[in-house]
Amino acid sequence: MSARFRIVALALAGTIVLGACGTKKTTSSATTAATAASCTPATLHTLSKGTLTVATDKPAYPPYFENNDPKNGKGFESAVAYAIAAKLGYPPAQVKWVTEPFDSSYAPGPKTFDFDVNEISITPVRAKAVDFSAPYFQAPQAVVVAKGSKYVNATSLADLKGALIGVQIGTTSLAAVNASIKPTKQPRVFNNSNDVVTALKEHLVDAVVVDLPTAFYLTAAQVPTAKIAGQFSAPGGDRWGALLAKNSPLTSCVTRAIGQLRASGELGQITNRWMGGASAPQLS
User: Fold this and answer.
1) Whether 129 and 154 share a structural domain
2) Into how many domains does the chain fold?
């Protein structure tokens, strides 16, 4: 379409749109008000009426939870969960925490929680069995190398090809290792995060791959002799979302709450407080 005809077409379209403009705005406002009204304790279909049930794994590690106590509001995901709850109209006294193992959270079937926060990456395969909210964080992967390992001075992903790498079952770290590092040795897969840490401590592996915030806690508190070789991006990005039962009536409301927290800057403040300030070399 030429510029001249485009101007004429836009002018005609503007004439038509002006007549309907007031109605469209009113409808949009009404829809927004209706959505807000449906995201309140009086209307939400939660597991227990008047209570928001939130799940995470046990033990719950920093920087996501402090003192292995999700209820205290300290730590990134504890703070995010309470912020979501507040946007939905639930004060801390009306938030109940339950334990849900990481690798069973995204299994098909009924849930014993309203939503789960546990560094759970949003993936197409998982999304077939459960719902995810909009993401509240995006984390790169990191390589942690044991002291004395011949890979302790690795500066690239290619340097790690011959390493025996450990990962936790059910995490996106295994896919990230296979896609980005492509090691010549089959990675060792462990049942939980404790087993991953033990494998690193006891030199059962040359290195482990975890998300970057976990790597900082691991090297600071759990295996202080280990070293972060560097970080790398997981294929497709590693975005974490609140996990809900498939077709949960709460999904849109939790996504809306996260959107409000992001727009107001509160999510950024929570992230900076608990997750900010740390970096690692980029591995490529």
Assistant:
1) no
2) 2
